[in-house]
Sequence to fold (133 residues):
Amino acid sequence: MVRKYAPLYLILRCSAFVGKDMKKGAVWDLMEQRPLFVTMDSRLQFISASEISDIIKGLIAGDVFNDTFNVGGIGAVSLRDLANSVNKDAFVQAEAERQVYEMDVSKLKKIYPLKSSAEYIQECIDVVRIGKY
Fold:
């Protein structure tokens, strides 16, 4: 619909967000020791909310329009590795399902310096740990 009716558009297909104001999601659930609704062998792709803001500013400043981008960190992170990095035990709901979610972000990476999903998560964890939450 956007492509059909908007003379100028920019479509961003975003992976899971992390950030200081998050109130839900697998990272938040682990940090708050809440039940997970995905299995520990799930692999998810992440990016910080602040990075998405920077990406939007960069695309607009670079006169990038009428295009679609997958937006996420490079690669996916396993929930098991994530739980280990935040030193938390995880409680997985009985009805949890394995999810694998990783988009190809190579198109965006050609024009914007993306970090890995693990780096975006670690930045978020560091902010929470030092009390800037």
Q: What stands out?
A: The domain at 2-126 is CATH 3.40.50.720 (Rossmann fold). The helical segments are 2-5, 26-31, 49-61, 79-85, 106-109, 117-129.
